[in-house]
Every structure is written in C-alpha cells, then in structure tokens.
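Researcher: Here's a chain I'd like modeled. Treat it as a single chain, no partners, no ligands.
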Amino acid sequence: MLLVLKKWGCVMFFLLMAPCMIASQTFFANPRHKKFLREHQDFPQTKVVGQNYCMAMMQQRGMSRPCKTTNSFVHAPHNQLKDICTWAGTHYRRALRLSKSVFSVTTCNLQGMSQGQCRYSSQTGQRQILINCDSSGWPVHFEESNFM
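Model: Modeled as a single isolated chain. Structure tokens:
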C-alpha cells in the first residue's frame, strides 16, 4: 500500500510540474520573446550614473550600431508584461493588445550622432502600452507610438 502511495505521489508531482517545465522551455526557446525583453523591459529600472539613461541603455542593449531611431523601455516585471497577452490586456486593433494598466515607460528618441556615437533624449512617463503577442501568449513586439 505504501509503495502504491509513493508511486501516485510521484505521478502527481510530475503532472503538477509538467506545465511549469513546458512554460519555462517555451520562454527560453522563444527568440522573439527574448528579443522583446532585451529591447523593451528594464525592471527594476537601471540606475545610470553620470550618463544619459537612453544613451547608456541603447548601447548596453545593442541598439546603437546602427542607431535605432526610437525605443521604449517598460519598467515592469516580466509577468506583468506577459499578462497583457491574456487577462491584463484588451484587443486593440490587428493583433495588438492594449494594457489595462498604466506602466512607467522611458522612450528614447535619436537626436543625432556626435563623434560616432548615437545621442538620445529620454522621456519618462506613465502610460498604457501596446504590444503584440505570439500564438503561445508571449509578448514579441512593442508598438512604438505616441499613444499615451
């Protein structure tokens, strides 16, 4: 009897852990989602000392060769961004999802180049965001817009 209970315990453990393992594999195997996080998530917000936030972040995240014209960083945890793909967002248009909540967002705009380096201005504010999610429910695109 004890052996049967141990067997069922192992089976139940596996059944409970399987969805977590599949979700984590999907997360790590999804290059579009990883790119989305690299380009658009900064949580907690990186503290930049003695340098413009956008210039530092665009360089650090590999978006300054060539200079990317506009990019936004959302200062929110990963799970809050993913939830926009389901219950925390609403259909907006096409395949876009509009967040129900506002987020702290820093938008970086290219001002030009100086001495071979991209020069960015930054604007931080609270706003709803628009994202596109893949068929598995992972954020894969941030819609750069003036939507506030």
